[in-house]
Amino acid sequence: MAIQYIYPEFEVVRNADRCIGCRVCERQCANEVHRFDPESGKMMADESKCVNCHRCVSLCPVRALKIVKSDHTFRPNFNWSGDAINQVYQQAGTGGVLLSSMGNPNPYPIYWDKLLINASQVTNPSIDPLREPMETKTFLGKKTPCIRRDGQGRLIPERSPRLELSTPILFSAMSYGSISYNAHASLARAAKALGIYYNTGEGGLHKDFYEYGPNTIVQVASGRFGVHKDYLNTGAAIEIKIGQGAKPGIGGHLPGAKIVEDVSKTRMIPQGTDAISPAPHHDIYSIEDLRQLVFSLKEAVNYEKPVIVKVAAVHNIAAIASGIARSGADIIAIDGFRGGTGAAPTRIRDNIGIPIELALASVDQRLREEGIRGNVSIVVGGSIRSSADVVKAVALGADAVYIGTAALLSLGCHLCRSCHAGKCNWGIATQRPDLVKRLNPEIGTQRLINLVHAWTHEIKEMMGGMGINSIEALRGNRLMLRGVGLNDRELSILGVKHAGE
Q: pTM, whole model, 2 decimals?
C-alpha cells in the first residue's frame, strides 16, 4: 500500500545571495531543521521538522531567512479541510491520539471583540487618571456581610483570609515541568515585584521558589503531584484544580521527556515517566465531597489561607459555580475554552468547553440572584489578550483575571504550538539545559513587569473614560458595556444592551 505523502506545513526560504554560511540557524534550531552540507558548501533544510518558531529568522545576522506557509493544498473541499485530511493520515499511520499545545485556534466567536466599552461625556464627566486618584487594588476572598460590635462598641474582627492584588491580574497556572525553571523564576519574581500572584500549576513548587511563597498560589490537582504540608503552608492561597479550559473533563498530561531530575524531585514522581493526572479527583463525587476537601485544606493551613476552586467553563457552569460557592471555597476560578496548555488531546482542545465571556456573565448573574455573590470572588482566564479584555471581564462580573499565554508571549513565546515536544527554542516550554538558558530570568522578569504596568495604566485610562475611579465600582457594572453584532440571546446571557440603546 502506498503511504500518503504529507507536504510540510512550512517552507524555509533562504536567500542564497545573502546567506554567509555562519550556521547560526543550525545551532539555534532544537528541531534540527537546518544543516550544513559540506559537499555543496550550502545550508540545507528539512522542512518537515519546522514548527515556525521564528528562532532562526530572528537570529539570522544577514536576514537571509524567512518561514512561509506552504502553498501546497489539497483539492478545495469545504467539508474536508487540509488539516482534517492530514490528521486522518497521521492517526491512520500511528494509531495514536493527536496532541496539541496552547489554546483553541479555530475561528469561533471572540465575544471580547464584540463588546464595546461605554464612555462618559457631559452629564457624567470622565476622570483624568494622571491627576486624580484611581484605585486598581483588588481583594479576593469572601466579603464580610456585615459589621458587628461587642458590648463595648468595639469591632468584632470576622474577616476571612483573602488575597490583596495591586491590580486585578494574576499569572495563571503553569507548572514547573511544563515550563522551564527560568520561566518559573521570571513569573515568581515578577509577581513579587508587582504585588500580585503567580500559580504553581499542578507540578508542585521547586525548593528555590519557596521564598516567593507570599506571592504564590499553590495548586492541588487530581494527581497530587508535589503536594505536602510545607507546600500548602508556603503559598498565599491554595487552588483545587478540577478542570481547565483547554481540556475540560480530563486530567493533566506531561510527557516523560520533561520529567528531568529537578522536576522529578519537585513532583515526587520517578524521573522520565509520563505525569498523567486522573480525570476526576477520586475523593470528589459531589459538592459535599468538595466541601470536605476544601475544609481539609483549610485545616492543614490553620484556616489562614483562602481556598480557590478552579473549573473549566462548560454548559452548566452557573449551577456548578453555585455549588462551589456553597462548598466553603473563597474564590472560584473559571477557565474558558480558549485557555492555553502545554499538552492536550487536539479533539478535546478544539471541541469541548464554552467561551469564558458567556460563562462569566451567567455565573455572576446566578450568584447574584441567589444572594451569595459576596461569598466568593470570581477569577477568569482563557485568552485574556489585552487590558481591554481585563476591563470587559471585570464589567461582566470578574474580580480579577488570570493571564497565561500573554505572560508567555512577554517571555518570548512565538506560539508555534509545539510545547508538548519539549524543544522550545525560546527556553520556555522545555527542560533541556541548553535551551532553558536561552531565557534570561532577569530580562523575563522585567518584561512581565513592563506588561502588567502597561496594562494597569491602560485600565486606569479606560476607567477614567467611563467616569469610574475604582475596580470595585467597575465590577459587574454591565451598563458600561455595549454589544455589536450579537443576537438577542447572546446579549441576554451577557446581560448587556446593543450599541445604540
A: 0.93
